[in-house]
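Researcher: Here's the sequence for the chain we discussed earlier.
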Amino acid sequence: MFIIRAIGIMAFALMLHADKATAQEAEIVEHIEQWWSGWAQRDTTILADLADENFMEFSGSHTHRSEGKVKLLQIAKAVFPLLELQEFSIEKPKVTLHGTTAVCHYYYFERGRFNGKEFDDAGCATGVFIRKDGKWKMISHHRTKFNKSIPYER
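Model: Thanks. This is the structure I predict for it:
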C-alpha cells in the first residue's frame, strides 16, 4: 500500500511540475509576442519593461550588436519614426527551461514599411530570458532572415 501511495504522490508532483513548466513556457511566448507588439506599436515602455539592463541583440540584417537596455531604447527611438510594422506573427515557438533561464526558438513573419520601402520578411529567432525578482527579463535576442530563394512552408 505504501508503494502505491508513494507512486501516486510522485505522479501528482510531476503533474504540478508540468503545469508550472507549461505556465512558464506560455509566459515566455507571451513575452515574445509583447516584444514584437512593442516594435509594432512603437512603444519603448513595452521594450523597457521586457529587457534586462544587460540586454544584447544581434540581428542578421545588421552588422553590429546592441549592448544594454539603454542602447536598445536609443536604437528603438531612432527606428520608430521610420518603421511601420503592419503585420507580424510568431509561429512554432519552442521554449526550454533551465532553472532561472528560458530559451525560446521561433519563426517570425513580418510585413510593413521601413524608411518608405515595403518589406515582407520571414526568419527564425531566439529569445533568452532570465528570472529576476520574480519576473522574466529578456537578456538576449537574435534573429536571422530566411534566404528568399529557399521557400519556407508555413
